[in-house]
Amino acid sequence: MSQPQDVINLLVLSPVSTILQEMVSSVELPGSKGRFTVLKNHAPIISSLDEGEVSYLADGKKHSLHIRTGFAQVNDNTVTLCVEI
Asked: From CA 85, how far away is CA 82, in angstroms rounded?
């Protein structure tokens, strides 16, 4: 079964484990300079993250994960988050 063409890979890591790895349609992040959304083909970026909700849309359903702090890297339709929960 193939993946839909409008998805990105979301990988959420903590210092001790992989918290989440899922194909999603969008990710909304609590960036230090304000919230921002990542969609397919987003430009490469590295951002620090403040405490708040990481929201993502997977299989048409909205999910969220509360983080205390972290960093985000967006590159080649992959969003990698290194966070403290």
From this structure: 10
By residue count, the chain amounts to 85
Burial 30-63 (b: 16+ CB within 10 A, else e): beeeeeeebeeebeeeebebbebebbbbbeeeee
Does pTM surpass 0.70? yes
pLDDT digits (tens, 9 = 90+) for 14-43: 999 999 999 999 999 999 999 999 999 999
Mind listing the domains of the chain with CATH numbers?
8-84 (2.60.15.10)
Gap between the Cα atoms of 64 and 22, Å rounded: 13
Q: Which residues pair with 27 in a beta bridge?
A: 38, 56
DSSP state of 68: S
Asked if residue 49 lies in contact with residue 83, where contact means CB atoms within 8 angstroms, the answer is yes
Find out whether 71 and 48 touch, Cβ atoms under 8 Å.
yes
